[in-house]
Write a structure and sequence with these properties.
- This protein has 2 domains: about 1-230, 2-Layer Sandwich (Nucleotidyltransferase, domain 5), CATH 3.30.420.40; about 240-425 and about 460-490, ATPase, nucleotide binding domain (Nucleotidyltransferase, domain 5).
- It is about 35% helix and about 25% strand.
- It contains 16 helices and 23 strands.
- The chain has a 7-stranded mixed beta sheet with strand order 17-18-16-15-21-22-23, with helices on both faces. The protein has a 6-stranded mixed beta sheet with strand order 3-2-1-6-14-13, with helices on both faces.
Length: about 500
């Protein structure tokens, strides 16, 4: 008996199977191709994306593996409109990072006091959310929403497998039209914008069966297999690596970086709002999560790679340069706001900055300062989360491409003072999607039983250097935080 997992990410779509008894099966990866039109707007082609997913499924099931359930995770805010009757796309799939709907986000922000909307959604105004994208589409074509339904990326793949229109709580919560305090669509808010409430699909708990496979024989899937929307990719990955205690925080490091922690479900008020963090529904029943991030973490490293040579430095050159840097803090403050700042001071207009440069600083110092700056930002989020939750965070579990750079990981441990764990797990989101579907579809009785899927993973541990931590702490508290208030006022 196997679990099939699907992960629709910003750069890749993946499929893989896991034996319900803990065996690790085959994984297939396909590129998620982002297209850019003449206006500079980015989009995914839904048919192309479905073709990639279908191809990946065929590859991993080529040997005739039987499947007991399917779990699908995806990037959170990416979505499209499809025709409710025919199932045909009404629009391209708009990525979470495309900024075309900034004017709509500003309009929405004027329609309800920020704290009032936050207490219902757990979110601060942003161009990323599904509602802003829908209003942008409606501005281009006033008729486009009639008879249509909005689906997130995972929802769309689930629809192609089952013919059922549905979403899960974690993805619904990223539309800005869903009340996380009531686990229901905010119908009066949706109507306020001249939209029909059936524009959004039924929302169910993560991992719950939404339908069964039909006419999927060409993929290697029999009819009648339960399909579940596992939900938000970061939340699924956190489950996979065991970041399911308040003292343990999940750190996903890619082009963007996200810090996420679990918390009991609770009402949100002014304290949570002022934290700048966003909040949502966890895949585990009875729990929520807090989240903060930096849009240009790994992106800052890529930017600096391109600046330090006529051709971008190779990753081997990056590691070699970092090895030449003087141990301990550089004394340079880098603010990684190439795409604006995130929590705890969200500001899409904030500008990046390098402060504290001296003539003796070298390329190695500049490169190391970039890593320090991204780690300082994560430290800001960690400390904010501690204050707002009243929990001491002593462990970080990190996954993603950035974990391959051990210099970076040691800097993160030194700045935070936390033990940093690096699971040797290539596909955390896929594994989390399988676990979530396994629990929701009744294959496992709970997270403890489902954790059989992750017990074989090896984990590397990095401990902070006490002397470096003390030095970084002084610089953070006496320099980075104070100067950051000035930097974020520059737009």
């Amino acid at each position: 008996m196997n679990l099939l997992a699907i992960d629709i990410g910003t750069t890749h779509a993946k499929a893989g199977w896991f034996g319900a008894d803990g065996r690790t099966g085959k994984t297939a990866v396909r590129k998620t191709t982002a297209h850019v039109n003449q206006k500079g707007e980015t989009y995914f082609d839904p048919e192309e994306l479905w073709g990639s997913v279908a191809s990946a499924i065929r590859e991993v099931l080529a040997n005739g593996e039987t499947v007991a359930a399917v779990g699908i995770a995806s990037m959170a805010e990416t979505g499209l409109l499809i025709d409710r009757r025919t199932g045909k796309p009404r629009s391209f799939m708009i990525p979470w990072f495309d900024r075309r709907s900034l004017p709509q986000a500003e309009q929405i922000a004027r329609e309800d006091p920020a704290l009032s909307r936050f207490s219902k959604t757990g979110l601060h105004p942003s161009f990323k959310y599904g509602l802003t994208k829908i209003l942008w589409l409606k501005e281009q074509d006033p008729q486009i929403t009639f008879g249509a339904v909005w689906l997130s990326a995972a929802d769309y793949i689930a629809y192609r497998l089952t013919g059922v229109l549905a979403t899960d709580y974690t993805l619904a919560a990223r539309t800005y039209a869903f009340r996380i305090d009531e686990k229901s669509w905010d119908e009066s808010w949706i109507r306020h914008f001249g939209l029909k409430t059936d524009l959004f699909p039924e929302a169910v708990a993560s991992g719950q069966k939404i339908g069964e496979t039909r006419e999927c024989g060409q993929l290697g899937l029999a009819d009648g297999i339960p399909v579940a929307i596992a939900g938000h990719d970061h939340v699924c990955a956190a489950l996979a690596v065991g970041a399911v205690r308040p003292q343990v925080v999940f750190d996903s490091i890619g082009t963007a970086e996200t810090l996420m922690g679990i918390m009991p479900e609770q009402a949100l008020g002014a304290r949570e709002y002022k934290s700048g963090l966003s909040y949502g529904i966890h895949v585990l029943p009875g729990y929520g999560f807090w989240m903060g991030g930096c849009s240009a973490s790994g992106g800052s490293v890529e930017w600096m790679r391109a600046q330090l040579g006529e051709e971008p430095l190779s990753y081997e050159q990056v590691i070699d340069l970092l090895g030449q840097a003087t141990p301990g803090p550089t004394g340079i403050f880098y603010y990684p706001y190439l795409a604006g700042s995130g929590a705890p001071h969200p500001n899409p207009g904030a500008l990046g900055a390098l402060l504290g440069l001296r003539a003796h600083h070298t390329r190695s110092d500049l490169l190391k300062a970039i890593l320090e700056g991204t780690a300082y930002e994560m430290e800001s989020i960690r400390r904010t989360a501690e204050r707002v939750t009243g929990t001491s965070i002593r462990e970080l579990i990190a996954v993603g491409g950035g974990t391959k750079n051990r210099h970076w990981m040691q800097i993160k441990a030194d700045i935070s003072g936390c033990e940093l764990y690096l699971p040797q797990l290539a596909e955390a989101t896929l594994l989390g999607a399988a676990m979530t579907a396994g629990i929701g579809c009744g294959i496992y009785r709970g997270v403890e039983e489902a954790s059989i899927l992750s017990r074989s993973q090896q984990t590397e541990k990095l401990s902070p250097n006490p002397d470096h931590h003390a030095a970084y702490r002084r610089l953070f508290e006496q320099g980075y935080v104070l100067a950051g208030e000035w930097v974020r006022r520059m737009e």
